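Standup notes, structure subgroup. Blocker cleared on the flavin-adenine dinucleotide input:
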Amino acid sequence: MGTDFLKSLYALIRNNPNPSEHAVEEAFDGNLCRCTGYRPILDAAQSFNSRNNCGMAKSNGGSGCCMEKNGGGGCCKGSSAGDGDKDAIGPKFPAPEFKKWSPDTELIFPAALRKHDFKPLVFGNKKKKWYRPVTVQQLLQIKNIHPEAKLVGGSTETQIEVKFKAMRYETSVYVGDIPELRQFTFHDDHLEIGANVSLTDLEAICEQAVEKYGSARAQPFKAIKKQLQYFAGRQIRNVASPAGNLATASPISDLNPVFVATNTVLIAESLNGEKEIPMTEFFQGYRKTALPPDSIIASLRIPVAKEKGEFTRTYKQAKRKDDDIAIVTSALRVSLSETNEVTSANLVFGGMAPMTVSAKNAEAFLVGQDFTNPATLEGVMAGLEKDFNLPFSVPGGMATYRRSLSMGFFYRFYHDVLSNLEVMSEDLDPDGIAEIERAISTGDKDHEASVAYQQKILGKASPHVAALKQSTGQAQYTDDIPVQKNELFACMVLSTKAHAKIISVDPSKALDIPGVVDYVDHKDLPNPQANWWGAPVADELFLAVDKVTTAGQPIGVILAHSAKIAEEGMRAVNVEYEDLPAILSIEEAIEAESFYKHSPFIKNGDVDEAFKQADRIFEGVSRMGGQEHFYLETQACLAIPKPEDGEMEIWSGTQNPTET
Ligand code: FAD
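Run returned:
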């Protein structure tokens, strides 16, 4: 099992020795592992869940576990889902002796960390300074002296800026260890939360709020909790903060619409004092907010809902249900009089404009209407159509789909609110109200699939050679190999242009960085032929020569004493390009006679004859649009020059060793 999975499992069991099935599954959202496979990982993790009294986890007490009773060879947990397991596969390796664990065992946690006394810290050098204040007053003083300082909470946004947008901050201030920014207080009419409370803690606070205020009055907190359920994975929520979401002001933020719709008030603090900013006035443009430059976001006052006649709901559509950024996200709120007349409304959307926005036309129409009158639904839809008449060229695309989503969300909201009012049941569309939840993952292994083809070895399931090592965490990966003497780290300089002439490459600034050892490019290869690779035709260059034909094409390599320095060096290499024209469609390629010379058509059999004999021939054009690919995993490779005959020992995670 990948170490990330082990860390997630450890954190889960540490925080909650009796997790539910859902909590177990949720703890692994966002983890990636290509070696072990997800089914066995989830099966192993689910053996810790509170319903499961068997499995490896709960082996002592109770009924005991098969692992314990028969010395391994498969767990009794598997017997219901896959009785065939043992018979079909048979024990292929001796079962490892797992340490037993009982839920009342205290998992090891360094006592020194528990007792750690937080003190203000500062460290760094001439180029970069890090501050870690532990009171708001200290933070404000630092901000006063360094107004340009970058505040860092969970760093889930900041790291994207640093890693992928090459942003550099000379002064950074970590605000995650300031208790005042992480506390919360229940008041009669509002809940005040510290702006840098973690989102995981915020989920728990929302649960407490439901207990404290009751279901109806706690609707804003239920709405926040629901948004958080579909907000990134647990690892992100463990560190990310509302302040980070607010200050980033992303147009697709999930929390910001709720804060606007619930009329939350943001408290900004500077050395000059406190300022209350209504959330309805906070967002001013693309990633632009009303936060004064000398201020920090200190807290949020989230109003409690009225006991009767107020309804708040949230809706989000992403490409997948959990752990994904929104296409459209929204928080909708109405307040009704005793006669169901709308007294106030907030219809707030993300993904429909360069910032979190209110649907002004729809809101204006809604106020004063009888909510239960079907004409109200029609009128709001017309208002939304005006509010979100996005042009087809809108950034992010999908103009029609996004507008349909905004209307679909209101449709669901309308029927959900109606279901809470005394209305005729035929006016209700119950199908539109409920949330579709993903069921707990299950999986079986099909041992029968290859029975018909089975031979002595072929067709039989057998664990692959590294299975035990990978699933117990013993496998050593390239990156785990201890650093060798004189080892250098390489970082590639990649093209930022899709099609361009390389006018010049100047690595001098990179070479000035202490720790950068060298810059190499195609000129350092023994001969021009050594720069070509590919099969069956070697038609790709390792390192660009005078032109780049794709963004991300390697141009050269920076060598340095650490991976971090190599990355810094890579960013300092100055490449000058001259843009070349691009051919972007098949038609343009045919027109320009721009063909791959070596690639033959895939032709099998007598195509002309087959067409002649076909009963019907359909002709048409099919096009595939852009594709998105989530990264899989980072790659590492270790090359060790050997003293004899220019030999090179290569450690590489490759499926093609002969070409490495
Ligand atoms: P940081 O990165 O620490 O800071 C972000 C900004 O806030 C910085 O400019 C920082 O200076 C500023 N800041 C932090 N604290 C303060 C303060 N007290 N006062 C003033 N400024 C402050 N977002 C969503 O809305 N929905 C998602 O589903 C979602 N999924 C994500 C998935 C992944 C994998 C990642 C990496 C991010 C995702 N995000 C998502 C975005 C991000 O997690 C959130 O915006 C998060 O709330 C940022 O919080 P943070 O504490 O990590 O911010």
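Discussed briefly. The chain is about 30% helix and 20% strand.
Next: hand off to the docking folks.
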